[in-house]
Specification:
It is built from 28 helices and 29 strands. The protein has 908 residues and is an alpha+beta fold. The longest helix has 34 residues, at 874-907. Residues 570-885 form the ERAP1-like C-terminal domain.
Length: 908
């Protein structure tokens, strides 16, 4: 699954295979806030085959269901417990292997999300058949079996509403669509049939249709091929009106991209990516895609970015559809990554599935790594691995430095706990440590290990240790020993280069140490250590690793051989920023890199890695903020998109920090931004050049966005001209510049400007355009307008999937931060009931609170959620409040020095 933001330890090891034993669960739940002890389903009964019938009614927004589940009774028992939630069960009966039919008592528990069937006598070991008749609501919560509304314009110019029925069963929502054993390790085969009331509707599921008949009542009945054995959360059903484009991949697999009516052309880019990605993964894994078809479908209302249902992947429209005239280069690249991510899951997640959600990272971390392999293969011009560091690796490190982070593998039980680990640790840290492992053992052995793993465990479930065994067998390297230190304990080390010594024979001794890196800069008292694959490069050939070594000690002297280094050369740790750790140099050693940074002879990955490591040290109080600002002054000739992304990340975080302070420092910082951006903005200009590269197009958008946030007078003036021309139809703004131009105009505009943006929003049916307008609305500096934006966020005009991002946009500015936070408090019950926990709610909480910078605000946020609750976002609240306190400490520590530095630079 691709979460929407959102596509990045020797430990006391817990045996996670057994973590749900009663004693451990009670202890964990108490630590997590006195949560009710959680238990998995009894092992006395196992499903084998679900014969499932569904009939959605898209007028009444209900559905009827019937199923017969072939089960194996493994232990004599007088009760069967399985999952069911928000379903009305009308009839249940059990038929045993001898044909005897019994009617059990039925007890539903909404708290446990289960249905318990009680029998008068013991059920004997053997085969049996369990029949359910049930009804449910096609809800509007974007989970389970729900309704999605799409508005189109007919030939007469009138708006017409269409509804579709859509399943979103990950993580634990299959139980909302049919009674089932809703745990990933309880795999079964699914024989699905769908009745369609409206004969024009399409009905889709995981497998191809094998029959399409008309019933006596006029319904169409579509029966699908049986699925392979798979987990409940991967079942998919969609019913509605769709167009499609199709093609076959090189192996003859039929690939279709389904779109809203009239938008089939927008599915062509994703179709090309998908039909090339499937053969790529087949070749990489040396395991064929096992299903006869691959469908991708754009859904109007969708909580995450996409969901990897086997054979029928569901997407947000903005994560699948490309309009050649209105889709930005950034968005097109994002779509390639999302498609690559979901198709990687067809093997890693669907064919082989984690045994329990503790091992979620086996699905998400791996897919988040492999998507980059795929996109690098398909689009080498994207330079995607350099972007991996800024978009994935750095985000993981930022979260993982917090005390409220968590290990990659973390015990989870109740569904609310599961949703909360779909975060930058499971995805981005998971991908980053896999990348480090890939580098450690080499691509050939990595591919061999993947093949061993997939072949051995196909159609079954695994633990993390199973992956290590396969990779260790393929590489003959200590994979488990190394990687367990990265997955079973939270955080990561900082490798400090303490000194360098030249030996008489020409070799160099590098004295390094490792300690846990913490966001507050304090020494961690646990004394945890990592097995760190260290690599080194020199100025002679900065893009080549000259030495490798594994470090598991607190301190180590590493000898770079004389044939790998010459006198006077610098030595850099972690070339290409592959190792998942920070590096700290003495000021003298760090200064040695500055000429290579300025001249850009140091590769981009190393330029941005040095910058980001220094910035992290600054935030932790281990270096001063003026040091990182001084380093960036050496980067005014920079022209690499990814390096500028890292610089923009630094500038953006500092801008947010300084927006919390009164005085002229914020304005001085904006002037500093403009000094940094002057050369690159002059070089790029406003107008795309013929045959310019994909990365140049993205860089222009990034630079203009940064200049808009810095209130550059020339840029603001030109943005208003372009906006006026766009409104009049004189000249359309290119897609990559719309977001910064919209923000520029609204930040200095009035209610007329706001209404003009509203008209643009109402006049487009492209979700990408609606999305960027939504996210631009918070740029206004007018409190009255921002209040209207917040009201707009909760209106029927904004889909609930987008509401949170409109509110977040308001909370991103100095003027709107308190407004957004107050709005959330005032509307908390409504927001919580709408999202019922889940990804969108945690995003909302995190992004509207973490940018405050006072102890008082941290306490206010904590107290509000203590009083009002936020099931499923407890860890997110801890992280946000920790970040607020870190911001406060940062300001107190560095504000005066930062102010003096900016005065000196700006006055030159």
């Amino acid at each position: 699954m691709f979460c929407w933001g959102m596509k990045r330890r020797i430990p006391r090891i817990v045996c996670f295979r057994l973590f749900l034993s009663n004693s451990y669960t009670k202890k964990y739940c108490k630590m997590a806030g006195d949560k009710k002890p959680f238990g998995r389903l009894p092992k006395s009964v196992k499903p084998v085959l679900y014969d499932l019938f569904l009939k959605p009614d898209l007028q009444k927004f209900t559905f009827e269901g019937k199923e017969t589940i072939s089960i194996n009774i493994l232990e004599s028992t007088n009760k069967i417990i399985l999952h069911a939630l928000d379903l009305k069960i009308e009839e249940v009966e059990l038929k045993d292997s001898e044909g005897f039919i019994s009617k059990p008592s039925v007890t539903l528990s909404a708290e446990d999300e289960t249905v318990t069937l009680g029998f008068d006598k013991e059920l004997q070991i053997g085969e049996a058949f369990l029949k359910f008749i049930f009804v449910g609501e096609l809800n509007d919560k974007m989970k389970g079996f729900y309704r999605s509304k799409y508005v189109s314009v007919n030939e007469s110019g009138n708006q017409v509403e269409f509804y579709s029925a859509v399943s979103m069963l990950c993580t634990t929502h299959a139980r909302r669509m049919f009674p089932c054993w809703d745990e990933p390790n309880l795999k079964a085969v699914f024989d699905i049939s769908i009745a369609v009331c409206n004969t024009s509707h399409r009905a889709l599921s995981n497998m191809p249709v094998v029959s399409d008949t008309t019933e006596e009542n006029g319904d169409r009945l579509l029966k699908f091929q049986k699925t392979p054995i798979m987990s409940t959360y991967l079942v998919a059903v969609v019913v509605g009106d769709f167009d499609y484009v199709e093609d076959k991949d090189s192996d003859g697999v039929l690939v279709r991209v389904y779109t809203p009516i009239g938008k089939s052309e927008q599915g062509k880019f994703a179709l090309e990516v998908a039909k090339c990605a499937l053969p790529y993964y087949k070749d990489y894994f040396q395991v064929a895609y096992p299903l006869p078809k691959m469908d991708l479908i754009a859904i109007a209302d969708f909580s995450s970015g996409a969901m990897e249902n086997w054979g029928l992947v569901t997407y947000r429209e903005s994560c699948l559809l490309v309009d050649p005239d209105n889709t930005s280069a950034v968005r097109k690249q994002w779509i390639a990554l999302v498609v690559g991510h979901e198709l990687a899951h067809q093997w890693f997640g669907n064919l082989v599935t984690m045994e329990w959600w503790t091992h979620l990272w086996l699905n998400e971390g791996y897919a988040s790594f492999v998507e980059f392999l795929c996109v690098e293969h398909l689009f080498p011009e994207y330079d995607i691995w350099t972007q991996f560091v800024t978009d994935t690796y750095i985000r993981a490190l930022e979260l993982d430095a917090l005390n409220s982070s968590h290990p990659i593998e973390i015990p989870v039980g109740h569904p609310s706990e599961i949703d909360e680990i779909f975060d930058d640790i499971s995805y981005n840290k998971g991908a980053s440590v896999i990348r480090m492992l890939h580098n450690f053992i080499g691509d050939q052995d990595f591919r061999k290990g993947m093949n061993l793993y997939l072949n051995k465990h196909q159609y079954s479930n695994t633990f993390t240790e199973d992956l290590w065994v396969a990779l260790e067998e393929a590489s003959n390297k200590p994979v488990k020993d190394v990687m367990s230190t990265w997955t079973l304990q939270k955080g990561f080390p900082v490798i400090t280069v303490e000194k360098e010594t030249q030996n008489p024979d020409g070799s160099r001794v590098i004295s390094v140490s490792q300690t846990k890196f913490t966001a507050n800069g304090q020494v961690d008292g646990d004394g945890v250590l990592w097995m760190v694959p260290l690599t080194f490069s020199t100025s002679r050939n900065p893009g080549v690793v000259c030495h490798k070594e594994i470090m598991s000690e607190i301190q180590k002297d590493i000898i770079i051989p004389a044939n790998a280094i010459s006198p006077g050369e610098w030595v850099k740790v972690n070339p290409s920023t592959v190792g998942y750790y920070r590096t700290r140099y003495t000021p003298e050693l760090l200064n040695n890199f500055v000429p290579s940074i300025s001249s850009r002879t140091l590769p981009p990955l190393d330029r941005l890695g040095l910058l980001d490591d220094l910035f992290a040290l600054v935030q932790a109080g281990l270096s001063s903020t003026d040091e990182v600002l001084h380093l960036m002054l050496a980067m005014t000739d920079e022209d690499n998109y990814s390096v500028w992304s890292s610089m923009s990340n630094v500038l953006g975080k500092l801008a947010i920090l300084l927006s919390n302070v009164e005085g002229d420092t914020e304005q001085l910082f904006k002037q500093y931004n403009r000094i940094l951006l002057k050369k690159i903005s002059s070089k790029l200009g406003w107008t795309p050049q013929p045959n310019e590269s994909h990365l140049e197009t993205m860089l222009r958008g990034l630079v203009m966005a940064r200049l808009v946030s810095s209130a550059d007078p020339d840029v603001m003036s030109e943005a208003k001209i372009k906006f006026a021309n766009h409104l009049s139809g004189k000249e359309t703004i290119v897609a990559d510049l719309r977001s910064p131009i919209y923000k520029a105009c609204l930040s200095s505009g009035d209610e007329t400007t706001f209404n003009q943006l509203l008209q643009l929003y109402r006049g487009t049916d492209l979700h990408e355009e609606k999305d960027r307008i939504c996210r631009a609305m918070g740029a206004s500096k007018n409190k009255d307008i921002l209040k209207k934006v917040l009201d707009f966020a909760m209106s029927d005009e904004v889909r609930s999937q987008d509401t949170v991002f409109v509110i977040i946009s308001v909370g991103g500015s100095k003027v709107g931060r308190d407004l957004a936070w107050q709005f959330i408090q005032d509307n908390w019950s409504k927001l919580f009931n709408q999202y019922q926990g889940g990804f969108l709610l945690t995003r909302l909480v995190k992004n509207t609170t973490e940018n405050f910078s006072s102890i008082e605000k941290a306490e206010e946020v904590e107290n509000f959620f203590k009083q009002n609750g936020c099931v499923g976002a407890e860890r997110t609240i801890q992280q946000a409040c920790e970040t607020i306190r870190l911001n406060a400490a940062w300001l107190k520590r560095d504000y005066e020095k930062l102010q003096n530095f900016l005065h000196k630079v700006v006055q030159k």
